[in-house]
Amino acid sequence: MKTILVDAVNTFIIKGQGINVEMQKLLDAYPNPKIILTNADDEQIVQFGLQNLPYPLFTLKHAPDKVDPAYFRTMLEHFHLTPDDVVYFEHNQQAFESAQSVGITSYHYDAEKKDLKSLQAFLDSRLK
To answer: Domain spanning 3-126 has what CATH number?
Structure first.
């Protein structure tokens, strides 16, 4: 069963609002494990409200950031996963491309549109 990798800030967490409840409902409909990915350091974890999340949180605290493919290689090693074991969605174009560069099937989530129907179509097609 593939693990769903979820971008944290501006995707799962909306600044000033907290968890994107509709996105969580969508994700909870899948039995797959989920991991929230962020660049946040300890101070930013508090600042962005990344404590007490419903899924595990992974960060390298900007060493490196998600725009560096090393972030994704390190994350995969940490969880004993391969690129084929995961799918990912991310709002930042450079981080999206970084994940793709290491072979992770990725979806560029438009944080402005918040199009959950397209996200669901991506997940449905990649989790079968």
So the answer is: 3.40.50.1000
Pairing assessment for the beta strands 105-108 and 57-59 based on DSSP bridges = unpaired
CB under 8 Å, gap of 24 or more: what pairs does 108-113 form?
A: 109/7, 109/11, 111/10, 111/11
Q: Is beta strand 18-19 parallel, antiparallel or unpaired with respect to 13-14?
A: antiparallel
pLDDT-derived band at 111 (thresholds 50, 70, 90) equals very high
pLDDT tens per residue across span 34-60: 999 999 999 999 999 999 999 999 999
Terminal C-alpha separation, the chain: 9
Count how many Cα atoms sit within 13 Å of the Cα of residue 77 in the half-sphere of its side chain: 8
Count the residues in the chain: 128
The ranges assigned to domains in the chain are 3-126
- This prediction has a pTM of 0.97
